[in-house]
């Protein structure tokens, strides 16, 4: 099949789609932040946007003719109509938007994985778009009163989703991901990747960042996270996944621990720490070769489980630092033990 | 996002909270089954 989309462009197209998806999701979330069930809203959002991605991904893996991205756009459209124009409980648009979010994530993951042909750059660039979207969605919820304008970026995704689905539905590039050493047990590999994702999910919230107080600092934080996620895939393709996994995890420790009040130090650590995002997906893909959607969904379940503790417990600074050090070292050792050295 | 846990939020929305947790656990359970099935079948 002749590719109409340049190989490097698929990541950028889904960077934009992921960006729009998170803008819409976080504009909705933060606009409802003051409602009566405020504490439950983010928990429900995390549950129903992150967790079902594995199941949706599995269905999409089996039924390649279904354009799961278009279903996601339709769900967002319905959710936003309820949110903006119909006086109903916030839960109705919340559930619909969550499922739309999940469908579009799966669509992006499958397209970039299939196009990647064993390389992580495209998927990493797609994943990075989310950080920028979360930031812009949060900022817009404070300043944008005419929410209907957000239908414009929503509609703008339709031609991109149709084009990329047609281009990628019959591709088999997902079978070329092979990042594990020989004879590594499949269950062990998945469990290690899952563990590392949970740790990263928790640390994303647990990193001490008392410097982060102004809007500009928040923008810098999310921008750095996005750059780190993209760099993880790009550098893995260039220098080898094992080197990047071990070095980024270990090097981030001093910067994260000492950056509580030093913004630049902290940002450098966050950039390094964010790099493992696509690496863990690469590990799972190396096992579940024919199931890119399910593989991606496993990482999002891990992210959900990593974020759950922050809803119930609040650790002190010193406990967070200890956890960062201990779990980063464990993650680094585990990743080093299963990833193969060559590119 | 930083949310401070307040047990009142659960008490006031107990049913919703329990339903959310149960559905989440069910989906995680089904996913685990699918992953085991795929690994056993040798996902190629």
What does this structure look like?
- The complex is a heterodimer of chains A (343) and B (44).
- The mean pLDDT of chain A is 88.
- Chain A is mainly alpha-helical.
- Chain A is built from 15 helices and no strands.
- The two termini of chain A are 27 Å apart.
- With 44 residues, chain B is mainly α.
- The longest helix of chain B is centred in the middle third of the chain and has 28 residues, at 14-41.
- Chain B is rod-shaped and about 45 Å long.
| Tally of contiguous helical segments of chain B | 2
Major sheet size, sense and barrel closure of chain B: none
% residues in beta strands of chain B: under 5%
Low-confidence stretches of chain A: none
Q: pLDDT average of chain B, as an integer?
A: 79
What structural class do you assign from the helix and strand content of chain B? Answer: mainly alpha
The overall pLDDT of chain A, averaged over residues, is 88
Q: What proportion strand of chain A?
A: under 5%
Could you spell the SSE succession of chain A in H and E letters? HHHHHHHHHHHHHHH
Q: Which regions of chain B have little confidence, pLDDT < 50, spanning 5+ residues?
A: none
Largest sheet entry of chain A: none
Helix content of chain B: over 70%
> What is the number of beta strands of chain A?
0
Domains of chain A (count): 2
Distance between the termini of chain A: 27 Å
Rg from Cα of chain B: 17 Å
